[in-house]
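Ticket #4471: structure output looks truncated?

Reporter: J.K.
Steps to reproduce: submitted the chain below (251 residues) through the standard prediction queue, then opened the result file.
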Amino acid sequence: MRAHPIIFSGPMASAIFGGAKMQTRRHIKWSPLEHASGHNLMHSGVSVGHHCTGDPTSGWVLYSRRGDGAWEQLTWPSKKFQINDHLWGKEPWRIGAWNEEEGAFAIDYFEGPRREWLKVPDDPGGWKFADLASQCLDELRNKGINPKYGYRNWRPGESPLRWRNPRFMPRWASRLLLEVTDVRVERLQDIDEDDLKAEGIHFDEYDFFNPPHREAFARLWDSLYAKRPECQWAANPWVWRISFKRIKEAK
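Returned output as attached by the reporter:
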């Protein structure tokens, strides 16, 4: 079992906590290695959208029919995600308060309740309490705020400190721990109605001001890959389809 960091937006993190989101899709880049005949495909019993069994180090092997009718074998060098792996979620965050005596922080999330008090682990390669607290003090001074003790403990939602990029969230600050229950590889546009709901995309069928599930998901996906045309909905890229369950409450 391995643990992977994975980024979610604030609304998607909240959807996971609410039980509305149980899947995520992540873009992957395929490299065609060789062509295989239909006979080999039938012999192997492998089809698009399903993964191979056997040696777990052999990677994914899929077959896709090309425009000329030939079968093309595609492979991924390793299974990045496997069943029973853990995912720890990264999302927009900021320091809501800190306690110098305890060496601990309170963390605000873009959506959802605060967590407090989280101690910074003694990790040589990670954040150190003194360094992160020093960043916060510098930020307060730059905003003209007197960094005395009373300004280091704000009520939830009132911290003057900046929101931080989820890429830089340390693991100790994460409130999401998930377990992978299934992994598939498929084209993005193969998503069906059940999977759209599992992605947390919902709408009222009688509300004509909201787009249907599929269109809503396409818009959301394209907003995440706005600078990468090859990854957008119209390009129909290969994606990991990862199903998961939440296994730990934040404390």
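Triage note (M.O.): checked the attachment and the full token line is present. The chain has two domains: 3-86+176-248, 92-173.
Status: closed, working as intended.
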